[in-house]
Amino acid sequence: MPKAITIEDIRVILTQPGKSRLCIVKIITSEPGLYGLGCATFTQRIFAVATAIERHLKPFLLGRDVERIEEIWRMSMVHGYWRNGPVLNNAISGVDQALWDIKGKRAGMPVCDLLGGKLREGAHVYVHADGGSKEEVADNVRAYIEQGFRFIRVQLGGYGGQGSGMVKPKNAPAGAYFDPRDYCRNMLDMIAHVRAEVGAEVELLHDIHERLAPIHAVEFAKDVEGFKLFFLEDALAPEDIDWFRHIRGACATPLAMGELFNNPQEWQLLIQERLIDFIRMHISQMGGITPARNVAIFADLYGVRTAWHGPSDTSPVGHAANLQLDLWHPNFGVQEWYQPSALDYAIFPGLPIVEDGYLYANDQPGLGIEIDEALAAKYPCQDIVEEWTQTRLPDGSPTRP
Ligand code: MG
Predict the structure, then answer these.
(1) Considering the entire predicted model, what is its pTM?
(2) Other Cβ atoms closer than 10 A to 398
(3) d(CA 246, CA 298)
(4) How far, in Å, from the CA of 258 to the mean position of ligand 1?
(5) Is a pLDDT exceeding 80 seen at residue 248?
(6) How far apart are CA 356 and CA 172, in angstroms?
(7) Quick one: CA dihedral 13, 15, 20, 21, positive or negative?
(8) CA–CA dist 26, 256 (Å, integer)
(9) Is the pLDDT of residue 162 over 80?
C-alpha cells in the first residue's frame, strides 16, 4: 500500500481586504507542494475561531491521513464533547473544505466532480439592491437588470427599514434603532412599488432578517403574497421556527431560512414537514462541505431547494465552495452573491466570476481558488466592535440584528 499523505501543518490566515474580517485555513500536507484551502469565517468572532483551530484542532489533527474527510469531520465534532456551536463549526469547516480541496487536487478533479459531477454549467445568482427610498431601490433594481441579473433582493434602508418619527425614551442608549411596525408598512410599500416599476419577469427576494414578532411575520408573509417573491428570507428567528407552520397555513409566499443554523435539529423539521422552500445555511457555520452535501441530498427528497448564504462575510474560498455544491446538486435554487472588489480578486485568484447573472467556476482541481498570502498580509484584521448588530427597539431594548 502506498504511504498515506498526512496533515503536516495547519495555518490560519486572517485578512480583511474589505468590510468583513476573513478566516482562511491552509492545510499543508506531507506531499511537497500539496495543500488545501478552506473557509472558517465567523467574522464577528474571528479570533475565537482562529484560536480554536490553532490551539485545539491542529494538535489533534497533525499526522492524520488527508483522505479520511468523513472520519476527521466526525471525530472533530465530538472530540471537544460540546458541539454544534458557531466557533467550533467554523473551525471544523476550515479543515473540512481544505481536505476536499486537497482530495480534488489529488484526483485532478474539481470538487463538484467528486460529489457526482456537474448538473449545470453556471449557477443563478441573486444580488442585493438597497436604497434610501423606494424610488432609489427601483432604480438600483433596474441597474442590476441591465447588468444581466434576474434575481434581486430588495431592501429599504438596510435591515431595519425606514423609521418615521420614532420616539425614544429619555436617556436612550446609542444603537441601531428600528421600529418593527414601521418596517412592515415601509417594506410592503417598497415591494409594491418595485414590482409595479420593474414588471413581473424579474425575480424579487426580501430578507426580514428575523426582525419581526412571529405573528407580524405571518401577517407580512400574507400581505406580500401577491407580489410573487422568489422567496421571503428569515421571516422568523431560529428560536421561533415552530411558527413556520402558521405562515405555511396562511399563504403561498415561498420561504427561505438557515443562515443562523448550527445544529441538525434546526433544519431537519423544516425540511421534513416541508415548511420552507429554500434551505440556506452558511456553509462554514454548519461545519463545511461534508454536512452541506448531506443536507442537499436530504432536502432534495422533500422538494426543498438550496440557496446557500453568500454575502461578503463568506470568504472568497467559501464562495468557491458554495459554487462547487451549486453546480452539482439537483435541487439547487439560487446562490446569494456579493460584489467582490478588484482587491478580492487579486488576493484570491480563481474567485468565481459572474456573467449574465450566472456564476461560473474555473474547473481547476479542488475548489479552484488560491490565496496570495503576501498580499493578504497587507490587509490584517482590525479590532472592530460591530455597531449594526447593536440593534434596539424604539424603547431602547436590545433585539436581534
Ligand atoms: Mg440573510
Answers:
(1) 0.97
(2) 12
(3) 24
(4) 8
(5) yes
(6) 47
(7) positive
(8) 32
(9) no
